[in-house]
Amino acid sequence: MYDCSAAQIVTPKKILLNGLWFGPYSKTGKPKKPKRAVIWVHGLGSSVFSKLDIVEKLKDRETAVITFNNRGHDKVSGIARVGEKKIGKTILGGSAHEVFEDCVDDIQGAINFARKAGAKDIYLAGHSTGCQKSIYWAHRKKGRGIKGIVLLAPMSDWAAEMMLQGKKKIARAAKVARALVKREKKRQLLPAGIWPEHIDAQRFLSLYTPDSVEEVFTYAQPKKNPRILKSVRVPLLVIFAEKDEFGDRPAKKIAEWFDKNLRPNHKTVIVPRAAHSFRDSEDKVATAMKKWIKAV
Fold it and tell me: In terms of pLDDT, which residue wins out, 78 or 133?
């Protein structure tokens, strides 16, 4: 059982996102003003309940952790606007339908929430595809209002699927997706025989093509300049799982690529024997994060 409170985040574009508040409480049981807040940005198809065993270890008397459903939560989901009453007008979201660029609005909403709660120092912590979203937000917003970003298992989705599905299958699916976009059917799901998971045309092209804006971590393209990643000036802690099943090469090689392309104010850590989820390695991850946060 986790000790937390429900929270409702309203983004600048008036989208409602459900969240949870983990952190200090007053004697009356209400959330108490924290010194710092960590905003958890979950990965592809995950949810507000992602990695709570790490989240629980991060909170203390001065630290709150805010987890929330971004627009990519679960497989297919309905995204509500403030004051929305007509169900038929609900925006389609989830990993099958989200628009990657909307992550800027989602994350900004969570940052605003943390600021209104009184947190002076704010950090982002992205896991998996949440890493791309955190970096893209920092690129678009120039990192304003936060002290640092933690990236947990930052894998290239394109490189991972090239390894898992193969070049031929991805090329075939991309061709179908582009044809749908050209026919103004970018929100239509790819046929089941083309791709094994529910995903619409625009989302497929965003996740699984090498020239997409979402392809932030370009270690599988040695000659490509990762300009979005390089534009981020805030301190970064990058934590890799040694046995990450979505890595197309050893974690050490990916860490070396990050070391080469990041500014000096970053740190890389490889958690021994950990898989992508960091299951059974939560203590090590939380300890590394807390130590880094206090040092920034």
Answer: 133
The enclosing H or E element of 287 equals helix 282-295
Of 173, 229, 233, residue with least CA distance to 204: 173
Taking residues 200-225, report their average pLDDT.
Answer: 97
Helices 103-116, 129-141: crossing angle, 10 deg rounding: 80
Token pair 């894998």 is found at 155
The answer to whether residue 83 scores a pLDDT higher than 90 is: no
Taking the C-alpha atoms of 252, 253, 255 and 261 in order, what is their torsion angle to the nearest 10 degrees?
160
Q: Where are the beta strands (DSSP E) in the chain?
A: 5-10, 15-22, 36-41, 63-68, 77-81, 91-93, 121-127, 148-152, 236-241, 266-271
pLDDT at 88: 59
Dihedral (CA of 157, 100, 171, 258) sign: negative
